[in-house]
Design brief:
Helix content is 80%, strand content 0%. The chain has 51 residues and is an all-alpha fold. It is elongated. This is 6380_t:CDS:1.
Length: 51
């Protein structure tokens, strides 16, 4: 449903911003996790919204 899709988008945006902040921060280096999860998240969110 659209309501679930909106909730997923909010979580996705939060994750994206947190991942970007972690990548910019010199203390944490996690460049591998972001590209792996991002495309999957987009596909899942898109599927849920259009479902």
């Amino acid at each position: 449903s659209h309501a679930v899709g909106i909730d997923l988008w909010i979580l996705y945006l939060r994750y994206t911003m947190n991942a970007s902040a972690d990548m910019i921060s010199p203390k944490k280096k996690q460049p591998i996790a972001t590209p792996v999860i991002t495309p999957t998240s987009v596909l899942v969110v898109t599927w849920v919204i259009t479902w």
